[in-house]
Amino acid sequence: MKKEENIKVGISIGDLNGIGAEIVLKTFEDPRMLEFCTPVIFASIKTMTFLKNHFKINVNLNGIQSADKIIPQKINVWNVWNDHVKIQFGKEDTKVGEFAIRSLEAATKALKEGNVDVLVTAPINKHNIQSDTFKFPGHTDYLAQELEGNSLMLMVADSLRVGLLTDHVPVKDIASHITPKLIKEKIETIYHSLQMDFKIRKPKIAVLGINPHTGDNGVIGVEDDKVLRPTLEAIKKTGKLVFGPYAADSFFGSNNYTNFDAIIASYHDQGLIPFKTLSFGQGVNYTAGLNKVRTSPDHGTAFEIAGKNVADNSSFKEAVFKALEIFKNRIEFEEITKNPLKFNQKKI
């Protein structure tokens, strides 16, 4: 891993009919951002110039065709296409979906080849990206295929971190997906991420139940007692501080979540509804467990406000900062695990 100076942030532009380009441009309209990193937007200089003029955003864009043309501390636009893009804000368009995927694929390729250091993804529309060659429900599933490691969706806002056992799975299929193997893999992934990416030496993790009231001793389902609880007991015996299962309905309202370094929810809405209620606009979606760093804002394309120049870029800016922080933490983790003596000296 390279030194942390001049970190190159690859940015996939997302759905051009949504708010993605707006929040990207607004983030880097603040010149102080360029003191922290070098953005590389995967789109086209023609498209991005049209958008910056539409939103009256005062930024200078540097169009490039290859990695060797990236200029540090400038807003670089890597030309992925030369086509004219018909932008209709707020409209779902499969052609625009194709451009979103071309941007994502080019950004991911650059990430894999080391031409950018981290990836921050602007929101996509999960419906209009589907094609014969792209059949993924979202970024996380695609990146899990393209990158090394075991991916886990981890929502982050300051000290609140919520991971998922299952993410984009229909409600009717959730229980069948949650197996002892999956539980062990996800807990191992989040445990290692907390150590490596967030500098927490001995993570304390809570796990939420599958059924209401964790099944009420089998009255409302047996999965908690037969699958989740015994698996967590087995994990505890390895020395990990893993607790649960907890009843999800009272866990966040009672502030119990503040006692843990991370919470693992059994399914998407069980974790994301309380997370977004507590942190909306400031949260970050981080794909933990992979060999490269990827973050995104905690919201979608927001078609209802697209093109109106009212989108809040706070979550996207947080996603950039979180990617930089995790990248630096990984450098430090790599250094101290190579040389344990150095680690001990720092703690004295």
Number of strands: 12
Sketch the topology as an H/E string, one letter per element. Answer: EHEHEEHEHEEHHEHEHEHEEHH
Q: Give the N-to-C terminal Cα separation.
A: 27 Å
Largest beta-sheet characterization: 12 strands, mixed
Q: Stretches where pLDDT falls below 50 for ≥5 residues?
A: none
Strand content: 15-25%
Can you give the mean pLDDT? 92
In angstroms, what is the radius of gyration?
Answer: 21 Å
Task: Work out the helicity level.
Answer: 25-40%
Structure description:
The chain is an alpha/beta fold and 348 residues long. The chain has 11 helices and 12 strands. It is globular, with a radius of gyration of 21 Å.
Descriptors:
12 strands; twelve-stranded mixed β-sheet; 348 residues; alpha/beta; globular
Summarize the structure.
With 348 residues, this protein is α/β, with parallel strands linked by helices. The protein contains 11 helices and 12 strands.
Could you outline the blueprint of secondary structure elements for this entry?
Layout: E1 8-12, H1 20-29, E2 38-43, H2 45-54, E3 61-64, E4 75-79, H3 94-112, E5 118-121, H4 139-146, E6 149-157, E7 160-164, H5 174-177, H6 180-198, E8 204-208, H7 223-236, E9 241-246, H8 248-251, E10 262-265, H9 268-279, E11 284-290, E12 293-297, H10 314-338, H11 340-347
Parallel strand pairs: 1-2, 1-5, 2-4, 3-4, 5-12, 7-10, 8-9, 8-10
Antiparallel strand pairs: 6-7, 6-11, 11-12
